[in-house]
Amino acid sequence: MSGSSSGKGKVVVNRAMSIDGFIAGPGDAMDWIGELVPKDVLAEVATATGAMLVGRRTWDVGDRMEAEEPGSVDYPFTGPMFLLTHRPLDPPDPGVTILSGDIGDAVATALDAAGGKDLELLGADVAAQALRRGLVDEILVYLLPIVLGDGIGFSPAGSATVDLELIDTRQAGPVTLLRFRVRR
Prior knowledge:
The structure is a single chain. By secondary structure, the protein is of the alpha/beta class. The protein has a single domain, classed as 3-Layer(aba) Sandwich (Dihydrofolate Reductase, subunit A). It is built from five helices and ten strands; from the N terminus they run ββααβαββαβαββββ. β3, α3 and β4 form a beta-alpha-beta unit. The longest helix is centred in the middle third of the chain and has 13 residues.
């Protein structure tokens, strides 16, 4: 699951999803994810990841979850964090680089900072923008054994049609991992 042989990492959309297609439940709830994804799987993906580019809504939900239950959003990742937003953090976080503007520029900046490892994209809007522009190499889906019934769907309405090739599938405890290559 590490970067490609060219020495440049891949751009990977990383998503946990309920079997009914939601990446967050009602009220942006994502607490069900950490309860179901095995820690060793998270560690494996985090090791292959050199940088993260996160959308503002996902960032805000993670902050809220951490405030409500400290440690609930722990992810064993230590590389550079980039937040794609038009609103600065208040208070500022010295460990986060704020990017705004063009998704292509943001992905290029974050991928360069990944140091040859993968760039992980988090957030429905960021992923949809990157997919629409043809900037994504792979999509990693953690299919979780839960039905949410409502929430934030895998892709926002109006997203681009993207042809995928299944390149890996495996079971990790109750979770099915699906890795797709984006066909160009």
